[in-house]
Amino acid sequence: MGRAEPDVVIAGAGIAGGALGTVLARTGFEVVLLERENNYPDRVRGEFLAPWGVTELAKLELLQPLREAGALFTRRNIPYDEIFAPSDAEARALDLTKMHAEGLGALCLGHPATCDKFAQLATMSGASVLRGAGAISVASGSRPIVNCVHDGASLEFRPRLVIGADGRNSSLRKDLGFKVNADEPHNLLGGMLVKGVPSRPRDMQVIGVEDRFHFLVFPQGDDLLRLYGCYHFADKSRFDGPDRRAKLINAFGKLTCLPYAEAITASTPIGPFNSFSNEDHWIDDPTCPGIVLIGDAAGHNDPILGQGLSIALRDVRLVSEILGEAKAAGRDPDFRPYVEERAERMRRLRITAQVAARLRVEFGSEARERRARVGKRVAAGQLAPLPASLIGPERLPAEAFLSETVEKLLAA
Fold first, then answer.
1. DSSP, residue by residue, 222-284
2. Is 319 in contact with 292 (CB distance < 8 Å)?
3. What is the rounded distance in angstroms from the CA atom of residue 207 to the CA atom of residue 76?
4. What residues does 67 pair with on adjacent strands?
5. Which of 11, 27, 118, 158 has its CA 20 to 30 Å from the CA of residue 206?
6. Which of 257, 267, 261 is nearest to 222 (CA)?
7. Digit-coded pLDDT (tens) for 193-239
8. Do residues 286 and 178 lie in contact, with contact meaning Cβ atoms separated by under 8 Å?
9. DSSP category for residue 397
10. Phi/psi at 288 (5° precision)
């Protein structure tokens, strides 16, 4: 059995793990990343980075590599909706370049491409990235123990710290017995990559509602689009079965409020259509002796807001800063600031997602009237939690997340 004592072992070399591995290796840490996948699959998520997440990427000095990898920036968000004509929606376009200091808007890049880029950067920075690692087990403690199998050999690591970055279904989190809190699932969200829509502006994203369908459209490279549809559990059969990819495209084709619906109808699916339940999961304290969880492994926000990547990159920055400061001072790291900041960040985003779900995934005449009322109130400057998903939850006053603020916003 091979044995090593690196500074840090990171379980998971996806976006969170790869980014953290890169940053730590750059600053002199000996890092080993263990990744189960040999090739990163299309997981139908993790492809939208909100403006506040772009700022986190810039602070980590990881923005330029993604630009070079083909990232696109959406500068406008068009709220196409059944409650007004397409021209009115375009007049209400939100300028995403004004959401944060970088002025770039939101970033869109395929999940596999981002994972590959960060794994490459981690390797170039001096980290060891072991793809195809299996049978990963971790024992917590002041000197944690990590075992795995790689290329047929049994390996043991005794690092100073283990980082759990193995995603939403983290096996490390389960094995170590972290308690996960969760809201009740309230709807389904599914997505798919399509090609053959060359006429659509590449700097525009769409978030809208029509009939019993909440839809989202994000550009990828060339003539590619990522389509998302959000719908009630009661409508699950509408998107089930072996022809579910065609069903999703047909749902977009029926939209009368979306000018590019006909072009999407003529597109070709080039990836799977997978759907997931929408709800928040969180951990009160994502640490235990010798272990820190980050990204989705530490709990994820309701995907209706698309905050996963921004959350993960904030985690990466905070954890890397704590480790760097501790190393420079010659002391053990104190992760309490990370735990406290993350708890409040996730609480605020949880409230924001609850409001978004009320507005986007409740249907019928009453829901339409509510969307119209809230839209006017937000445009007039009424306090609301909704901007948190673009500018970052910490940039709004605490009052924005009070129950009375939400009640006033949604009131008839």
1. TTEEEEEEEE-GGGGGGG-STTHHHHHHHHHHT-SS-TTHHHHHT-EE-S--EEEEE--EE-S
2. yes
3. 11
4. none
5. 118
6. 267
7. 999 998 778 899 999 999 999 999 999 988 999 999 999 999 999 99
8. yes
9. -
10. -150, 175
